[in-house]
């Protein structure tokens, strides 16, 4: 494995995280948004949501965020009514009325108000008042709060410290029974034990609450209740459990790419991105996106929608190396939609990519539901020279596909189905797929791939696969029936071992085996593309290399495409542009001349520019005039036409072309100076 890869991925991830850090100089919040953030939803917002909200620069963005904030918490999204929002403001109103009487603070700021607003009213309340030696105490009893990540049953205790003021939150470890007692205790007796005994004499249940907030927990007096402390810590983040706050950073990231109607409808996903080399030697990005929710429109028994997939690949210099927009129509009949309702929807696709380190962003919009989801991840495409083992693909199923078409996660005629979580059941057979690529020295003859499965740090299974010496890539397959794997977390490590027993490189992937007999699997929708080796892929990689500034390599790819398709105008245009970038103007003109009579706008412009740059002014003038005749004039074509006339000494013609160009765009200082000089 490329040791630098992990460092590059880590640095890219740090850069990505940095995108969402608060700006040093944040725009001051208008008062109504400040109140919303610091009062209305202060107990609901996650750190990420607050971080993003503080970076917004306009009221429009803030209003969109607020709308999305409540939409993400709406329990029934099919209606215009938001039950969660209504209940939240009801709790604030109740807290202000009921819990501010004994405090100088408004009710929502008190301890009881915070708990009431955060997790709702208790099932029951036990009040302990009127004891001569015990301060007033309230015990709130809760049950069935698993959605908040809290114990099934627990208690929250409030007491009036020193018998006066407002009720404050009680901690068995930090406060202890003694803080509930108003009477003096003998110094010669352990104070906490004495306090507990006195409380127990008045009410045994309250005494139990003074030691633990978890019913049934066995606690030795004088020993802190760790479960109670964990509970009190969990209360602060309990409201966050009901929302996946990644939608907030997605709104910030894609603010300019999604319409207003989409902004409140972010859908979470699980994703996987793998890099696979095809038979032609190109590397393809294979990705899958498994939607948390997928909606379609029904009409006359047919359910349909269209997904708009926008992808972009940028390099370290933030240059866009590759970009695509793909409409993906999805249509399902009644039987298929019933299947999808019981499963998640998984979109799979692929595209070729030139070697390098990049940042990948994919945005998917669902036109039917106006929902969107996205993935962002660093990727490394090897150059195929260094010996390495590809990232491992762990699949739960494979199917024969002899169509010859390219699809994501398909290789050697087999379609692989993998989970982005790498989760398996005991009934599954784990299918391992990997590739060994790069130049292999003679010492590799007789080498092997050593596959080791670890359970924790202990070796669990091991198998060696012999390597065939021929070829420049090896596809490795191995199947592991998981019937004998206990439910647990595992790590699979594949190492290249030379004939001398030396480990050369390795690749690893984690996976889990569940105790559940059968795991639900998604309904997979995979787009279909041209077969491997199609010139369209060479053309795409060639264009990518040109954009990276690797002109010679890019031109070589595009020349192959043109040679294979000498009658294709598009292939000629791409190759012509590459030659132009390399300043091979005469070659570009010669290659494009056969397409001159076809009258293509792109051909005419490129042909004229090549002739112009190569010094063939007369030919360029003819092409420029043909362009104007067919497609109309614009300022730069007229400017170039004037340059050619001037190069031939035809000053009157040059002057006429330049003056027309300057009428369209006066901001051409050099040509304006030439016109002025000619007029003199």
Compose a concise summary of this entry.
The protein has 680 residues and is an alpha+beta fold. Helices cover 34% and strands 27% of the residues. Helix 5 (83-98) packs antiparallel against helix 6, helix 7 packs antiparallel against helix 8 and helix 17 packs antiparallel against helix 18 (635-647).
What Rg, in angstroms, do the CA atoms define? 34 Å
CATH topology of the largest domain: Immunoglobulin-like
- End-to-end Cα distance, whole Å, is 70 Å
What is the name of the CATH superfamily of the largest domain?
Macroglobulin (MG2) domain
Shape: globular
Helix content: 25-40%
Give the helix/strand class.
alpha+beta
CATH architecture of the largest domain: Sandwich
Instruction: List the domain count as a whole number.
Output: 3
Q: Please give the CATH class of the largest domain.
A: Mainly Beta
User: Which stretches are low in confidence, meaning pLDDT under 50 for 5 or more residues running?
Assistant: 1-25
Number of strands: 24
Overall pLDDT: 88
Tell me the major beta sheet. Answer: 6 strands, antiparallel
Helix count, per DSSP?
20
Strand content: 25-35%
């Amino acid at each position: 494995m490329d040791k630098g890869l992990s460092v590059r991925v880590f640095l890219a991830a740090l850069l990505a995280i940095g995108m969402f850090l608060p700006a040093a100089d944040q725009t001051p919040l208008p008062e109504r948004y400040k109140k919303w953030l610091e009062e209305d939803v202060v107990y609901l917002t996650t750190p990420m949501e607050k971080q993003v909200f503080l970076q917004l620069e306009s009221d429009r963005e803030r209003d969109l965020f607020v709308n999305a904030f409540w939409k993400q918490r709406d329990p029934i999204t099919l209606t215009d009514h938001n039950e969660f929002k209504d209940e939240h403001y009801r709790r604030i109103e109740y807290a202000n009325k009921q819990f501010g009487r004994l405090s100088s603070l408004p009710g929502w700021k008190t301890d009881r108000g915070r708990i009431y607003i955060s997790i709702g009213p208790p099932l029951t309340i036990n009040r302990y008042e009127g004891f001569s030696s015990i301060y007033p105490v309230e015990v709130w009893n809760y049950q069935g709060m698993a959605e908040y990540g809290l114990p099934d049953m627990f208690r929250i205790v409030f007491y009036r410290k020193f018998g006066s003021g407002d009720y404050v939150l009680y901690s068995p470890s930090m406060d202890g029974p003694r803080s509930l007692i108003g009477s003096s205790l003998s110094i010669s007796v352990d104070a906490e034990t004495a306090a507990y005994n006195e409380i127990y004499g008045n009410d045994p249940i309250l005494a139990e609450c003074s030691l633990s907030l978890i019913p049934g927990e066995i606690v030795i007096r004088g020993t802190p209740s760790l479960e109670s402390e964990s509970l009190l810590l969990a209360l602060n983040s309990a409201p966050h459990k009901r929302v996946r706050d990644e939608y907030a950073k997605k709104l910030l990231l894609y603010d300019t790419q999604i319409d207003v109607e989409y902004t409140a409808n972010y859908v979470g996903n699980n994703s996987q991105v793998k890099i696979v080399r095809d038979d032609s030697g190109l590397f393809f990005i294979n990705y899958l996106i498994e939607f948390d929710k997928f909606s379609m429109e029904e009409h006359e028994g047919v359910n349909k929608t269209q997904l708009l997939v926008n992808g972009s690949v940028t390099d370290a210099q933030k240059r866009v190396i590759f970009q695509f927009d793909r409409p993906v129509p999805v249509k399902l009949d009644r039987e298929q939609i019933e299947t999808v309702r019981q499963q998640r929807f998984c979109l799979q696709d692929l595209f070729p990519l030139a070697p390098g380190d990049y940042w990948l962003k994919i945005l998917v919009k669902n036109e039917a539901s106006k929902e969107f989801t996205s993935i962002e991840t660093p990727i490394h495409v090897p150059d195929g020279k260094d010996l390495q083992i590809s990232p491992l693909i762990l699949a739960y199923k494979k199917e024969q596909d002899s169509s010859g078409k390219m699809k994501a996660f398909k290789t050697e005629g087999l379609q692989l189905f993998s989970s982005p979580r790498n989760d398996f059941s005991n009934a599954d057979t784990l299918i391992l797929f990997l590739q060994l690529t790069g130049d292999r020295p003679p010492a590799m003859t007789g080498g092997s791939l050593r596959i080791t499965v670890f359970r924790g740090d202990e070796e669990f299974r091991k198998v060696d696969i012999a390597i065939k010496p021929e070829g420049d890539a090896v596809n490795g397959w191995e199947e592991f029936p998981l019937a004998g794997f206990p439910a647990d977390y595992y790590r699979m490590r594949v190492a290249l071992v030379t004939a001398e027993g030396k480990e050369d490189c390795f690749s690893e992937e984690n996976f889990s085996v569940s105790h559940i007999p059968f795991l639900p699997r998604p309904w997979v929708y995979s787009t279909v593309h041209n077969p491997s080796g199609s010139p369209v892929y060479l053309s795409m990689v060639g264009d990518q290399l040109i954009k990276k500034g690797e002109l010679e390599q890019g031109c070589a790819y595009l020349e192959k495409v043109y040679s294979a398709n000498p009658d294709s105008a598009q292939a000629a245009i791409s190759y012509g542009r590459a030659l132009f970038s390399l300043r091979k103007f005469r070659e570009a003109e010669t290659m494009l001349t056969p397409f001159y009579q076809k009258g293509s706008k792109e051909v005419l412009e490129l042909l004229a520019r090549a002739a112009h740059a190569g010094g063939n002014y007369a030919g360029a003038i003819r092409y420029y005039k043909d362009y104007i005749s067919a497609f109309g004039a614009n300022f730069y074509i007229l400017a170039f036409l004037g340059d050619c006339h001037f190069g031939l000494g035809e000053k009157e013609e040059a002057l006429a072309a330049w003056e027309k160009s300057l009428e369209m765009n006066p901001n051409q200082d050099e040509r304006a100076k030439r016109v002025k000089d000619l007029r003199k």
